[in-house]
C-alpha cells in the first residue's frame, strides 16, 4: 500500500509512524515545552508534518533512519547522528521531517553536548592552508565522550580534481552487527589561520576544527565546535598519522597538557585514549 498515496494509505502510514513513536523512546518522543505528552506531540506532528512523514515512510532510507532512532537513548544525541549518517545521509525527506518538527514546535533542540571553548582567533597562525595537513590523521585522544569516542576514527585531508578540499572521515559503527565502517566527506576550507571549517552539506551542519597546538609535524591538538538545527556540540581531539597512541613523545604530551589547561581542560582526566591498534586503513 505504500505505492499509492490515497487518504487510507496516508492514515496507514501515519498509524505506523505513531506506533513507532509510542513504542520507542526516540528523539521524536521527547516532547517540546509546548507539548507535555507524547500524544500532544504526535498530534502536533500530524497537524504540521503529516505529508512529510508520509513521504518519509515510503522511502527506504528515511524509514530505516527513523527505525534506527527508535533504539537510541534520548540522552545520547550522537546515536541519532549515527543513525542519520548510516542510513539517511542523503535522505532529504528525513531532514525535511526533522526540520518540520523543530520549526513547528513539536520538539525542542537537544541540550548542548559539550561547550565550545574556541573561536577563530585561537587557531595557530602557522596553519594557513589545508596543504599543510594533507594526508592521514588518526584520532588517538578525545574529549567529547560521544563523538570523539567513535572507534577507529580516521581522517584523510585530500584535494579533489576540481581544486576543492575534503576530509574523508571514517569510523566504525559498533552499534550495528556486524560493525560497519561509516564514511562522511565534508568539504573543508580555511577561513582564518588554524581554522579548518568542515561543511557537511548532506547533514546541514558545520564544524570548525581549530588547531590549538602542533609542536611537531606529526601531532596536532584540535578543539572543535558544531551546530545544526537540533543541537550544539563540541569536543577536542589529538590526531597523528601514527594510529598507536603509545608512540606519542612525552614532550608533545607535555605541551598538549599545557595548552589544554589554558582552555580549562584537564588533559589527563578528561582527554581519554582511543585504542586504534586493531583498526585497518
Work out the count of structural domains.
2
Identify the overall geometry.
elongated
Over the alpha carbons, how many angstroms does the gyration radius reach?
Answer: 21 Å
Q: What can be said about the biggest beta sheet?
A: 8 strands, antiparallel, barrel
Chain-averaged pLDDT = 85
Q: Could you tell me the strand content as a percent range?
A: 25-35%
- Structural class, by secondary structure, is alpha+beta
Distance between the termini: 44 Å
Query: How is the largest sheet built, in terms of strand order?
Result: 1-2-3-5-6-7-8-9
Order of helices and strands: HHHHHEEEEEEEEEHHE
> What top-tier CATH class of the largest domain fits best?
Mainly Beta
DSSP helix fraction? 25-40%
Care to count the β-strands?
10
Stretches where pLDDT is under 50 for at least 5 consecutive residues are 1-16, 21-29
CATH architecture of the largest domain: Beta Barrel
Amino acid at each position: 500500500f505504500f505505492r499509492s498515496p490515497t487518504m487510507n494509505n496516508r492514515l496507514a502510514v501515519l498509524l505506523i509512524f505513531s506506533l513507532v513513536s509510542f513504542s520507542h523512546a526516540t528523539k521524536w518522543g521527547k516532547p517540546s515545552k509546548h507539548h507535555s505528552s507524547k500524544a500532544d506531540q504526535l498530534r502536533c506532528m500530524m497537524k504540521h508534518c503529516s505529508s512529510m512523514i508520509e513521504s518519509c515512510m515510503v522511502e527506504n532510507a528515511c524509514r530505516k533512519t527513523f527505525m534506527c532512532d527508535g533504539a537510541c537513548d534520548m540522552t545520547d544525541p550522537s546515536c541519532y547522528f549515527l543513525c542519520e549518517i548510516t542510513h539517511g545521509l542523503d535522505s532529504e525527506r528525513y531532514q525535511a521531517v526533522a526540520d518540520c518538527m523543530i520549526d513547528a514546535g513539536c520538539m525542542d533542540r537537544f541540550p548542548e553536548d559539550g561547550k565550545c571553548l574556541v573561536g577563530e582567533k585561537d587557531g595557530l597562525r602557522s596553519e594557513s592552508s589545508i596543504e599543510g595537513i594533507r594526508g592521514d590523521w588518526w584520532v588517538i585522544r578525545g574529549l567529547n565522550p560521544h563523538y570523539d569516542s567513535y572507534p577507529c576514527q580516521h581522517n584523510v585531508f585530500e584535494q579533489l580534481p576540481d581544486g576543492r578540499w575534503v576530509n574523508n572521515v571514517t569510523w566504525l559503527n559498533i552499534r550495528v552487527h556486524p560493525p560497519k565502517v561509516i564514511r562522511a566527506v565534508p568539504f573543508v576550507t580555511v577561513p582564518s589561520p588554524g581554522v579548518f571549517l568542515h561543511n557537511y552539506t548532506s547533514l546541514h551542519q558545520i564544524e570548525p576544527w581549530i588547531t590549538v597546538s602542533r609542536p611537531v609535524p606529526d601531532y596536532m591538538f584540535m578543539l572543535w565546535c558544531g551546530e545544526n538545527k537540533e543541537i550544539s556540540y563540541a569536543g577536542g581531539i589529538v590526531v597523528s598519522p601514527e594510529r598507536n597512541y603509545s608512540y606519542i613523545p612525552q614532550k608533545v604530551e607535555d605541551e598538549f597538557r599545557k595548552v589544554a589547561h589554558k582552555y580549562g581542560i584537564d588533559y589527563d582526566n578528561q582527554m581519554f585514549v582511543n585504542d586504534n591498534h586493531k583498526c585497518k586503513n
